[in-house]
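Exercise 3.2. Students should predict the tertiary structure of the chain below and write it as structure tokens, then compare their answer with the key that follows.

Predict this chain's 3D structure.
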Amino acid sequence: MFCILLIIQFMPSLAWATAQLDPEALTILETLKKTTQTIQSYRVTQTLYERFGEKMGELTTIDLKYDNSTIYFHVLDSAEKGAEAIYSPLSNWVWAHQGHFPDITIPLNIYSRFLVSSKHHPINEAGFSYLVNTTLRNIDVMKQFDEGELSLQHHTTADGRIEHIIEMKMPVRTFNYQLEPSDTSFSIAKKFNSSAYWILHVNHLHSHHALKTSALIRIPSYYAQRVIFTIDAQTHQLSQADYFDQSDQLYERYTWRDFKEQVFTHDDFDRKNKKYHF
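Answer key:
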């Protein structure tokens, strides 16, 4: 039987004798959390820009429909243009097609290689909720260890909208974990309230299927080493999220635009919808 080995590894930063958490930034983040929890039925255009190893992947734009964790998305550009997927938490399966020949529709597990090989996150983490909740756990860890920095700036856009720019800076803090035979990147992420691909990235692995049984890996206490949230001051919604790794390289960037709260019908999440191409 394998055992779990926990060894705290911490790289201290001389910048923080104690945590420096801007009170107004904390208030704005709490409002963001409440807004995210309240709005659970919406349509939005989302862009994804993610790092894989030493290179950033292709910028991808999707049309996303989100209704209490039921999800439909349609890829609008990139090499995956035309691909569609529908996910229901009731079945935990995804109906997907790749948008080009051979264009067949198949049911897949949300963690299947076809769905996650070129993405940081599985489909059930699409939208705002997962990223907001996972990132805000950084604040709890910063308070626990009395470290890190949270700062706030304000920006006025060309069309006169005010944006809150909130930056989090965290030291590198990890602990060691010995893999068990049944472990996957996703089960480990769930066990430690982390992100599957972020765990891989910290360990210089670049595939969800790269873990080796009995290996010793590092589990990060923080999600990213630096995070910048851009929040609309009027709607209290997230419009951009930038994440940076231990080398301060851009790790992932997500943007959201054309947001609309929406009441959906059954057809919106039905693969037989004639507007879709399943």
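Discussion points: Residues 8-269 form a domain with the outer membrane lipoprotein receptor (LolB), chain A fold (CATH 2.50.20.10). Confidence is low (pLDDT under 50) at residues 1-14.
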